[in-house]
Amino acid sequence: MEIGDFVGAWKLSDFQIENAQGESRAWGRNMRGLLIYESGGRMSVSIIRDPAEPKPSDWEAMDDVLFYAGTFASPSAGIIEHKVEVATERDRLGQTLVRNVELNGDILQISNRTTSGGIAKLTWRRAP
Q1: Which side of the chain, N or C, has fewer Cβ within a 10 Å radius?
Q2: What's residue 55's pLDDT?
Q3: Rounded alpha-carbon distances, angstroms, from residue 23 to 113, 117, 118
Q4: What architecture (CATH level 2) is domain 3-126?
Q5: Residue ranges per domain, the chain?
């Protein structure tokens, strides 16, 4: 895979969280997301979901938003790194997030280990 293979816009098809016991669940209801890789090496990902229950404040509603942006690189086959410059989760700032990737035509699968020992599995479809 070449960096150019990732360039473009991708729409979220699925987002599953697999726990350490191998049980899988959706990240949320009615998820929508957009992943953008540009030829200059910049990237951005935005994902939202419907809240499980109404949120009393805008701040609490941020629990249903995942966003970060920065730069990306693919140091080896099957790996992509996202170097985070801005994010809704402040602990991601300055981090390099290593992701496993698989590209099959217009389908991009990205996965990574979660902090709880599970695996986040995201499926993206190239946007028209």
Answers
A1: C
A2: 63
A3: 14, 12, 9
A4: Beta Barrel (2.40)
A5: 3-126
> What is the Cα 127 distance to its own chain's centre?
15
pTM summary value: 0.89
Q: Between 61 and 22, where is the model more confident?
A: 22
The count of residues in the chain is 128
Confidence of residue 20 (pLDDT cuts 50, 70, 90): confident
What are the residues whose beta carbons fall under 8 Å from the beta carbon of 44, sequence distance 6 or more? Answer: 34, 35, 36, 67, 68, 69
Q: Write phi, then psi, for 102 (nearest 5 degrees).
A: -140, 125
> Judging by beta carbons within 10 Å of its beta carbon (0-12, 13-18, 19+), is residue 76 exposed, middle or buried?
exposed
Whole-number percent of the chain with pLDDT over 90: 66
